[in-house]
Amino acid sequence: MKACEHLLESKEKLMVRWEKVSLAKLPDAQELSRTTIRDHIPHVFSALCDVLKTGVLKIPEELSKTHGRQRSWSTDYSLSEVMSEYSFLKNVIYDELMSVELATLENLRLIGKFFDEATAIATVEFVGLREHELNSITDSLVAMNLELETFAAVAAHDLRSPTATIIGFADLIVDEQDQEQDHSAEVAVMAVNTIKKTAHRMLELIDQLLGYAKIGKEHLARTTFSLKIIASEAKENLTAQIQDSKAIVNIKDLPDYSGDAVLFCQLFQNLISNSLKFKAKDRTSEIVIAGTQEKGRIRLHVKDNGLGFD
What we know:
mainly alpha, 5 strands, two-stranded antiparallel sheet
């Protein structure tokens, strides 16, 4: 009983001493962590006094779990430091009881068992939460790798068509020169202009893809633009693919829209590309892009006469 009463009377002094000891032995700990554990100490004293009064080791489990949680939130704390904090506090209490000759063998035994049990519970909680954090980080890395793979696939898909256009028109120049046609100069000028135009579009597309890669980190680039112009740009990016398929892409009048032009261009390009990929063999592929504005909302239609499905 005397030991318990003395601890309660000396509580403030013990807290100051603990803080000095921890500052000396854990110099890298954050001040926020010190404040948190200092606020936790009165509950430790209260639980310890119950043990000294009754002689029964009964530790409220949540008390030490809270300590483990507090330490897990501080990224500069290690498991050894979690264990050290209770060890420091135990030694401070031992010293205080020794100074007033209250450190009986029974008191020291109870205090030692109390702190051993408290350390074990706090450690289990600390380790469990740290493992949960590591698992969350691992899950995030897996998700990021999947996003990277998806982005690489999108980049390869969107860059393939303008590259095919450049190659196709370069081949056309070579063929015209080899055949020495009368109109080869005219064809060459037309082909070179198309190559330059397509190359510029490819550069724009690369910039757009880089912008697309930042989605999730930055806000979407919301602007007001003509959907017809964006759809036409997507069509031009697919010039080679459209010509190879002998397809007809008909872009009707489309309203203006407020959104991200990069994403809409990719949307139209992917839809047109899919229509060309699944075209019917017995008829000319025809793709129609149209849109209507109804009650302040825009309804877009991308239709084709391809294979379809039931």
